[in-house]
Design a protein that fits this description.
The protein is mostly beta strands and 221 residues long. Helix content is 5%, strand content 38%. GO terms for molecular function: hydrolase activity.
């Protein structure tokens, strides 16, 4: 996952959850058609700002919207998704100062919470968790089967405060990486929701990355 700083903003370019490994294996079967796209869009209330061109990277409004003053940020530390047999450790991740890449954990068994956005305590905005789909060296990643999630599936995110919070899937969407509406998925405003992201679609062997991103949106159950 590549992120570039631009003033108070960070820009997500190219891949999500697959750019910290040298090569990747093919991504299995393709997901069914998108579900819940309108519902996911309605959770965001802000009007997206124009993104940069695909060549220059797309803007992620990680500072758009204000968290409650003095609120304690509760990081997710564990994610359980029974429908796809996922039990994964969640690490707080940011931007690698040397490479300007979003630092998804190098182990494909672990996933990363974007610590510049809201935590589990939030009453507004998108909590972003991203993970690898797979790796040529390590095999299937924690989010290998993310594309199989459907509306109504449930998941549990446990925070650093020890509290388990349940969520219900409302949408599963697939986007070309150059067309994903990042302002929506990284916003700090709108209704509280959990956004899970990994790679998907055809694998470009020459570019060593997947063409698309799979995005799953869940709301408090």
């Amino acid at each position: 996952m590549t992120v570039r700083n631009r003033g108070a903003l960070a820009a997500l370019a190219a891949g999500v959850a697959a750019l910290t490994v040298a090569t990747l294996v093919a991504c299995g079967s393709q997901p069914a058609e998108d579900v819940g796209a309108d519902e996911a869009a309605n959770l965001a209330t802000a009007t997206p700002t124009p993104s940069a061109s695909a060549a220059g990277g797309q803007s992620v409004p990680v500072t758009a919207g204000e968290l409650p003053a003095g609120a304690e940020i509760v990081p997710p530390v564990r994610l359980v998704i029974p429908a796809i047999d996922v039990t994964a450790t969640v690490n707080a991740v940011g931007i690698n100062k040397r490479t300007n890449e979003f630092e998804v954990p190098p182990s494909v068994d672990e996933i990363g919470w974007y610590r510049y956005g809201p935590g589990l305590e939030t009453t507004a905005g998108s909590i972003v968790i991203a993970g690898h789909v797979d790796s040529a060296q390590q095999g299937k990643g924690a989010f290998f089967r993310l594309r199989e999630l459907d509306q109504g599936d449930t998941l549990t995110a446990t925070g650093g405060d020890g509290k388990a919070r349940k969520y219900r899937v409302v949408a599963r969407e697939e986007y070309a990486k150059t067309k994903i509406p990042l302002d929506r998925y990284f916003a700090r405003d709108g209704k509280p929701r959990l956004t899970l992201i990994t790679c998907g679609g055809p694998f470009d062997a020459k570019a060593r990355k997947y063409r698309d991103n799979i995005v799953v949106t869940a709301v408090p159950a």
